[in-house]
Write a structure and sequence with these properties.
With 133 residues, this protein is α+β, with helices and mostly antiparallel strands. It is built from seven helices and six strands; from the N terminus they run E-H-H-E-H-E-E-E-H-E-H-H-H. Helices cover 46% and strands 13% of the residues.
Length: 133
């Protein structure tokens, strides 16, 4: 599988909606982020496995150190809690594999999650609120 075929749960939800300046994270991260967005937008039969912990997108980020997220927006423990919220909100589990089309259908039916509306630290940069009215 390619690195984008295995993603942590919040990446399958959030990566498609977040719009903020990522230029400070470097060219490698920008390329990977673009690849993930394009992969998710394809809405096809490509499969994604939901994994626990860091994924290929994380590894391309300069805020990933020693196999852990060290972002000022949330450390690895906080990000894992966010992943759990996304899993629960979409009715999924770690290790589940779904096609992009099925994941997109689930997301369209359930997003934004209650957490997105009230507690997400990135909600001001999230286009889902523009899309959902």
């Amino acid at each position: 599988m390619k690195p984008i075929d295995k993603l942590r749960p919040h990446h399958i939800l959030c990566e498609r909606y977040l719009e903020f300046d990522i230029s400070g994270r470097g060219e490698t991260f920008i390329k990977m982020s673009t690849a993930v967005k394009e992969f998710l937008a394809a809405d096809g039969d490509q499969e994604i496995e939901l994994i626990e912990g860091i994924d290929g997108l994380c590894r391309s980020c300069p805020e990933c150190r020693n196999e852990r997220c060290d972002s000022s927006f949330g450390n690895e423990d906080q990000v894992r809690r966010l992943d759990g919220i996304v899993l629960k909100g979409l009715g999924l589990s770690y290790g589940d594999t779904r096609t992009v089309a099925k994941l997109n259908k689930l997301i369209r039916a359930n997003a934004p999650l209650p957490f997105c509306r009230t507690k997400c630290p990135w909600r001001d940069e999230c286009t889902i609120f523009q899309l959902s009215g």
